[in-house]
Amino acid sequence: MKDLKSSLILALQPALFSMLSVGFLGASGVAEAGSDESKLLVTATVLKHASIKVLAQPTSVVVTATDIARGYVDVPGFAQVAVQSNTQEGYMLMFESQADFVRHTLVKGLGNDVQLGWSGGGVARSAIGRGMSKATLDLGFRFILSESARQGVYAWPIHLSVSPL
User: Fold this and answer.
1) Each residue's pLDDT tens digit, 77-105
2) Which pTM was predicted?
3) Staple 142 to which of 26, 32, 106, 123, CB 3.0 to 4.6 Å?
4) Where are the extended beta strands (E) located within 68-125?
């Protein structure tokens, strides 16, 4: 099977190169008679792209009686994420909350503290220069507890995503 593939590739190479050369020369239409030069115009469109990778984040949130009396719980440690974007406009960092025990969330580490509603929210972030920009963010969280919050250990309630602007 491998020999058949190799034979086909070897047999088709001259025809393919001929088509490509004729295609390139025919497409340019700029070559002058007696000239060894031709010009080929190439354009490219770079699609907007943004991606996020969670490097570290808490796996759970512990709510104590003290937290309930105080009305909030500060999560020890940080969620660390790496964001890449190729747009000059920047990206939208989205936080989706999936917890009944949270009334709203305070996110630290974005320059200014950001308050999100019970279901989450988004924060527009500026691009840093041109081309592909990379940023590592250390995000701290304070969860303002809802009236229905009870003591216990809860699964990590925040899902992060990103989209280009």
Assistant:
1) 999 999 999 988 899 999 999 889 999 99
2) 0.71
3) 106
4) 72-74, 79-85, 91-97, 102-108, 114-116, 120-125
